[in-house]
Amino acid sequence: MTTITRISFAAAAPAVYRAIAALDASAELEPRMRELVRIRASQINGCAFCIDMHSLAAQAAGEDDRRIFALAAWRESPFFDERERAALALTDALTRLPEGGVEDGIYDAAAEAFGEQELAHLIGVIIAINAWNRVAIGTAMQAGAPA
User: Fold this and answer.
1) Is the pLDDT assigned to residue 64 strictly greater than 80?
2) ∠ at Cα 22 (125, 26), nearest 5°?
3) Are 21 and 75 in contact (CB under 8 A)?
4) Rounded mean pLDDT of 121-145?
5) Which residue among 13, 15, 28, 97 is least packed, with the fewest CB closer than 10 Å?
């Protein structure tokens, strides 16, 4: 089987790349929470590049390694508080996006934990990381390689 060299998304579509980056930058969320959400969505999507990048960013933001390691099983882990659980449940739901949409209970828990404006920013972070996962997976970016 031959391997086809994939495009550099940033070079091939710089305006689209900048638009995703602008969306990502405009969604304001506490740094550790932002990175937990990014890692979790990347785990669901199977994006090794983004898991690596955002695990390092989470560590740099002061996140505990045990919590990063436990993200794949956050529902069973004792390391996450109710606010984080609400964010992770919404991340799971929006990343998997079931046919019926996000369950009311999941949305309501996130809305209660975050409030309207912060919830909108949380949703923005989830949208942005899912876009980045698709870029990284679609162009076969490798973990540890520069973006």
Assistant:
1) yes
2) 50
3) no
4) 91
5) 15
